[in-house]
Amino acid sequence: MSIRYLLIPQLLFVLQITNGFSQSIPDLKILDTIPSDEEKLNILAPIINSKLYSNPKQIAFYAKVYDSIAKKIDNPEINATALNFKGMAHYVVEEYDRAITYYLKATRILEQLPPSAELASIYNNLAACTLIRNDLEKTEEYYLKSLSVSEAINDRPWIANTNNNLAMLYSQHKLYDKAEAAIKKAIPYYKEVKDSIKLGITYMNYGNAMLFSEHFNEATKHYQKAVELVTVKQIPLLHAVSKTGIGISATKNKDYQKALPYLTEGVTIAKEIKHDEQLMESYNALGDYYSATKNYKEAYNMAITAQDLKDSVLSRQQDANMAQALTKFETEKKEAQLKVVTLEAEKAKQQQRLFLILAISGLLFTGLIGYSYQKNKQKNKQLAKQKELLEKTVDEKNTLLRETHHRVKNSFQIVSSLLFLQSKNIKDKEAQLAIKEAQNRVRSMVLIHQKLYSKDELVGIETHEYFQDLLQDIFDSHKEHSNGLKYNLDIESMVLNIETITPIGLILNELIVNVLKHAFTDKNQDGLIRVQFKKEDEHLVLKVIDNGNGLSADKKDSSFGLKLINALAKKLKATFLLRENKERGTEAMLQIRKYDML
After folding, report:
1. Mean pLDDT across the chain
2. Chosen domain end from 97, 123, 154
3. 3 in helix, strand or coil?
4. What is the mean pLDDT of residues 32-56?
5. Where residue 11 sits, what CATH number does that domain have?
6. How many domains does the chain have?
7. Using one digit for the tens of pLDDT, what is the confidence trace for 135-157?
């Protein structure tokens, strides 16, 4: 059972975007009455910050206005602020690469100047972008740079906030000792300034870190402090997370009498605020409670209720994606129609010119008639192509909108849930392990179909994001083997169709699970798994390399997982090799000859 850090988005909003502005938002027309460019920028800055999430579509416009005024002033700090605002404009519409480009330009300017709050803020914004990419190394680097600048200028509020962000980052990546150390640095400041809201959020994050590191008594203590500091009216989500966390801790400690009221209250609050993600977590926690107390009927009901809610959330996401695709289609359709109208108008004008030329002179313009005829013919061809393109666009978009992988994903989810419930009633350890491995294989295919209908690309899977999510899912479901291990991904981004990515995903699942189970018997070993996936010449090459003990000969011959890999490799016309690593451990390589790249 895991619980998400559901207050991270709200807290990051406070820490990354707010720059201390509390002025009311004036009408932009007021700028025409102000002679000083500096005063205009002082008015624009709070407008941009205030509208950042309330009206993100307008931010690009305001950022351009700010930039146009800033260019009149020869001031590097102001120019850096303009770049920061442009980066924020792209961040809120999820164009993270472009946001990073502007943020880096701003930092290059400010790094030549004395340390400033603006530089600390931009480093923090860069961390927000890399956090979305799940890039631990870069995110930590930017947070630490932000912290270093804040300490240099003794900006104590920003020092506390950045430590809080670091704590949440470390908790997400299971670096609980680092998370605890960062939280302890943030708490004294919030206590000193008596900021009960941020202190409560920090204690809730502290509870999350302790819960994940299985220090359940400590988790309970910090969750209780959180609910004491912040009322349910102020932040109901904090109460839903904390009450559920206390219930989970009590369940793990087998204090079932204490657990049930907290878990029930967590469900009630999440329902009241209609927070579907937290409600799913609370249902799952309650299901674990019923399973622990051997009330399998209620455990099954909770699992089904949580799954139905998840399906509802994903269905709404699918509807939103389809609406977005339809809007995109309508826009393209109008643009194509506009091109057709433009071409037809141009054709009519050419015909008018042709008639005029004929009226003036016959013989002199015979050659010109031929020329105009050819031009007209070309325009007709272009017009025909535009019409054909429009028709193909209509067919393609309608097909994409009709295609959905929702039913397939639901079927796999039901199979996964049934396998999970079946495992609860089986005593034989080998049978339980076999069912768990089957459940992992089903999840690798669930992940594919979930991504297919939650992205614009409905017929293919982007490899980098899929491998990243699959590895995280495998590690989360094998915590007894993966604790303390690290993995490194070197994945070339490409889009593969479902017939190609499905067997690759299953093979990767088998390889990683085999490594987790057999490669690291020494718990003190500094374990590392490297996954590489690239296009080399005309082949796709997947490598899984570990620094563990290596597989014995009898494992290579008898493992069902390896037999499954060989069977799947035949479908891909792939060559599968398993050999000792040059340094230590094992290297598995799959060279794929049959694939379909979109």
Report:
1. 80
2. 154
3. coil
4. 74
5. 1.25.40.10
6. 3
7. 899 999 999 999 999 999 999 98
